[in-house]
Design goal:
Layout (H helix, E strand, L loop, with lengths): L23 H4 L10 E2 L4 E2 L25 H6 L5 H13 L8
């Protein structure tokens, strides 16, 4: 997983935190990030299962302005079950997340 602020000559913007789980596919241009889709029943994901859009900022509260997850959800994302992730996806989509600049 790649954070846009790592291995970059630019610094992290004020109010933003380096991304915990950003990936190239989640930060790419196009439509909104989507929950995982399996391919061929083999458990191979065709898209990222993370709602991270590499716009990481909590603006001094607990909710990321890019993906809508709490700081704790971001930190624990890789340890959550698919069912727990789906509950979070359902909530953040209902709240209008993930959001991209543009």
């Amino acid at each position: 997983m790649v954070c846009p602020y790592i291995d970059s000559s630019s610094s992290v913007p004020e109010g933003a935190a380096p991304c915990a789980d950003a990936s190239p596919s989640s930060a790419s241009a196009g439509g909104p990030a989507t929950p995982p889709a399996q391919q061929g029943g083999r458990g191979v994901f065709t898209t990222t299962d993370s709602p991270c859009v590499a716009v990481c900022s909590t603006l001094y509260d607990d909710i990321c302005r890019g993906c809508g997850r709490t700081a704790m959800e971001v930190a624990e994302w890789v340890f959550l079950s698919p069912e727990e992730k789906q509950v979070i996806w359902t909530r953040i989509r209902a709240e209008g997340y993930p959001r991209r600049k543009g």
